[in-house]
């Protein structure tokens, strides 16, 4: 029985991250999905209740409390199941994995910002320098993942690996020309395996 409501946009990589966590922790049946269609200039009145910034994902709990920001929601959900935690509960491992998850979020942020700039902003007002800067952030982050974090990502499908997988999926969806696989073959090989997971298959966005 659903006891929570997730305000949901299926193309958002941050929403997808929450959905993957729900699948991986076997909590999907606890959550009703509430679709919303928002943009930086268009909100949703119901979403704004208890969530004044109007961002997705947002999770309304049974008592009416609303959690927003995917990091907050994922950590909450990770405390609600009895399986292996997706986020280490303590020690240096916790901070390493949360920092790597934050890096994945930063890739998503840069990719979403690029999408807004190149798709929503009128063409005569687009800022090419902004787009180039976001692309450089993404390229630096992917190079770092390839160079320093492949073994960590391969060690288990935890919150960091989920975030990176969702970030790469969003790049493929919105910037298929980005060509990251040629520069990060190790990351590409890792991703080719994790996208076969049932949670990734079930949450794959359709353009």
UniProtKB/TrEMBL annotation:
<dbReference type="Pfam" id="PF13417">
    <property type="entry name" value="GST_N_3"/>
</dbReference>
<dbReference type="Pfam" id="PF13410">
    <property type="entry name" value="GST_C_2"/>
</dbReference>
<protein>
    <submittedName>
        <fullName>Glutathione S-transferase</fullName>
    </submittedName>
</protein>
<dbReference type="InterPro" id="IPR036282">
    <property type="entry name" value="Glutathione-S-Trfase_C_sf"/>
</dbReference>
<dbReference type="InterPro" id="IPR036249">
    <property type="entry name" value="Thioredoxin-like_sf"/>
</dbReference>
<dbReference type="InterPro" id="IPR004045">
    <property type="entry name" value="Glutathione_S-Trfase_N"/>
</dbReference>
<feature type="domain" description="GST N-terminal">
    <location>
        <begin position="2"/>
        <end position="85"/>
    </location>
</feature>
<dbReference type="InterPro" id="IPR050983">
    <property type="entry name" value="GST_Omega/HSP26"/>
</dbReference>
């Amino acid at each position: 029985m659903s006891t929570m409501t997730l305000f949901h946009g299926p193309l958002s990589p941050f929403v997808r991250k929450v959905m993957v966590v729900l699948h991986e922790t076997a909590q999907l049946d606890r959550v009703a999905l509430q679709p919303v269609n928002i943009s930086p200039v268009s909100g949703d009145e119901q979403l704004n209740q208890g969530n004044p910034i109007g961002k997705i994902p947002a999770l309304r709990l049974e008592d009416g409390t609303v959690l927003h920001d995917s990091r907050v929601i994922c950590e909450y959900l990770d405390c609600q199941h009895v399986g292996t935690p997706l986020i280490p509960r303590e020690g240096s491992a916790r901070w390493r994995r949360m920092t790597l998850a934050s890096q994945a979020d930063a890739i998503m942020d840069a990719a979403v910002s690029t999408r807004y700039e190149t798709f929503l902003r009128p063409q005569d007002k687009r800022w090419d320098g902004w787009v180039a800067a976001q692309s450089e952030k993404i390229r630096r982050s992917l190079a770092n993942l390839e160079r320093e974090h492949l073994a960590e990502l391969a060690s288990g499908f935890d919150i960091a690996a989920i975030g990176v997988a969702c970030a790469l999926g969003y790049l493929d969806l919105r910037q298929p020309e980005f060509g990251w696989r040629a520069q990060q073959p190790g990351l590409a090989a890792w991703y080719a395996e994790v996208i076969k997971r049932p949670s990734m298959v079930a949450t794959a966005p359709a353009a």
